[in-house]
Design a protein that fits this description.
The chain is of the alpha/beta class. Helices cover about 40% and strands about 20% of the residues.
Length: about 220
């Protein structure tokens, strides 16, 4: 894939890591996807470390997405990412303490923006407010943003396109990308990356897990 529109395969369903994540990665490690990740729940830390180590040994870029909204939970997730040797921390609401911890440990940080609640997450707030928030956080040194575009209660396609065009940083559009229509909208918005997890488990792209990954990678070229 190019510098943009990188697929991050998330071994998650309903915002939780699946029990057989290791086995699925093992069966798909030779697919066309170079970016892989999962959530902070519910695998034991020892299993998370084992899987991340395996991903790194396969030359994959690794992500931990933390679906947490308090400072305490977010900082715990950041420490988990460091312990696992993860490349990029996605999620958490922004807190200075999390940002400082990530900088200290050379962990790239892509927090959520907007008003987020529940799990699976729901995103609220105005598009312009999210853009303004992101541009303030860039001044604090975050790497990029985890935008829950298709969890937005408003016009998701409009949010994705405007946010990407007005925020000069890597943007990952995460959550509920489950159709070729949404892939077309992503092509139009042209973010740095996007996640798919649940849609692969629900066979939305028709085929084995690996076949679906390769279909999406080919489609986004």
């Amino acid at each position: 894939m190019s510098n943009n529109l990188n697929l991050i395969v998330m071994l998650t369903h309903n915002d939780r890591t699946v029990d057989n994540a290791y086995e699925i990665f093992e069966s798909c490690k030779n697919s066309k996807a170079d970016f892989w990740g999962f959530k902070e729940e519910p695998l034991p830390l020892s299993e998370m470390k084992k899987l991340y180590n395996y991903m790194k040994s396969c030359d994959k870029t690794t992500f931990l997405e933390v679906v947490a909204y308090t400072e305490e939970e977010g900082l715990k997730g950041a420490k988990m990412a460091v312990e696992c040797g993860c490349d990029i921390l996605m999620g958490t609401m922004f807190f200075n303490s999390i940002n400082d911890y990530c900088k200290e440990h050379s962990l790239k940080y892509m927090p959520f923006v907007g008003q987020i609640e529940n799990r699976p997450s729901v995103l609220k707030g105005s598009i312009q407010e999210m853009i303004n928030e992101a541009n303030v956080l860039l001044q604090k040194g975050v790497y990029g943003f985890d935008l829950l575009g298709y969890r937005y209660v408003g016009n998701a396609a409009a949010l994705n396109k405007k946010f990407v065009s007005e925020v000069n940083a890597p943007v990952c559009i995460a959550g509920s990308i489950n159709s070729y229509k949404r892939l077309d909208e992503l092509k139009d918005a042209n973010p740095w990356s996007f996640t798919i997890g649940g849609a692969f488990f629900e066979n939305k792209f028709d085929g084995t897990f690996e076949e679906q990954i390769n279909k999406v990678c080919d489609y986004m070229k």
